[in-house]
Amino acid sequence: MRPFGELLDRFLGRGTWAVTVPTFDGPLLPNQRLEEAETLAPLEAADNLISTPKGILASSGRRLLRLQGDGRMEEIVSFPQEITALATARGMTAVALDGEGIFIRGGAHDGAVFKSEANVNLGCVTALTFLSNDTLLASNGSARTGVSGWRRDLMQKGCSGSLLKIDLGARKVELVKSDLAWPAGVATTGSNRIFVSEAWRHRIISIDLTSGQVENVLEHLPAYPARIAPAVDAGYWLSFYSTRNQLVEFILREDRYRERMLTEVPEAFWMAPALSSWNSYQEPMQGSQLKQMGVLKPYAVTRSYGLVVNCDSRMQPLASFHSRADGKAHGTLSACEHGDDLIVASRGGAKVLRLAGVASGQRG
What we know:
- It is a single chain.
- The chain is mainly β.
- The protein has helices spanning 4-12, 150-155, 246-252, 255-264; strands at 38-42, 46-52, 55-60, 63-67, 73-78, 83-89, 92-97, 101-105, 113-114, 125-132, 135-140, 161-167, 172-180, 183-188, 193-198, 203-208, 214-218, 223-230, 236-243, 306-311, 317-323, 332-338, 341-346, 351-355.
- The chain contains four helices and 24 strands.
- The strands form six sheets. Strands 1-24-23-22 form a four-stranded antiparallel beta sheet, with no helix packed on it.
- The longest helix is centred in the C-terminal third of the chain and has 10 residues, at 255-264.
- The radius of gyration is 20 Å and the shape is globular.
- It starts with a helix and ends in a 9-residue tail after the last strand.
């Protein structure tokens, strides 16, 4: 039986039962910078961007590609499963495949393979980063689904994710922290603490690699954070799946309705965040998102959104780049600096964007 205080919170809509969503304000004030950005290249399922001296590595489903500054692309290799995460260091490329694990190509640990074991899961790797030439960090989103099942994990209120440290030489995988609500990004800080984006709890946390101790760094985000990429000024680029909205927050608290929706409604038409929207008249409609006189307002409530945020070394927001409800550059799961430019993968928009000069400080 639920405690009286919880029942009262549910009746009054407060505490954990509140459905309020933080607004985009301050450094997160909405704009159209992503929507107005140059399209560097069209790319279906654009994801996992990494800058290298030979060009930009990008993934597209099962394909690993190299993208040049003039938009030319070449396929490096194709895998049997979808690529879910990438990382590079000293001639090595770490590749995570959905439901399979992590594979090392090139360098000192070429051919190393890491798969799920009894006490660690590597079937849902959302992000990778090298801690050193011999140590790899991996965030595993869920123990119950693959990366492609991110919407189901959210709507089932999943919290089975983990942070893992991998000794490439010893072929050993160590569990650093479990019970995370879809850790979607991981970044080093120059110390023993690691930044992790915990998407379903709308926050960035730091985790001590020795003790597993967690500290909140950036809380109450108005969107679901995804990957974290380094910035040249010792800061970070934080990308996002989509924005939050009150209807989804309400559904997450109504278990009977939510369970029926997951069982009876095709996933494409769930009232849940998405990487793109307005692709079908069958999608769920929301009051303020209904078109009036054929026009969709940019400030309308939306299931999909494009957002990349520049943060300082303490993960505090400095500036943001948006594609709003009426835009198409949504589902921005990955970003990286390449020279003076910021490169953004819009998975929902099926393209790679370039914001010229942004990495050199031209962020106005």
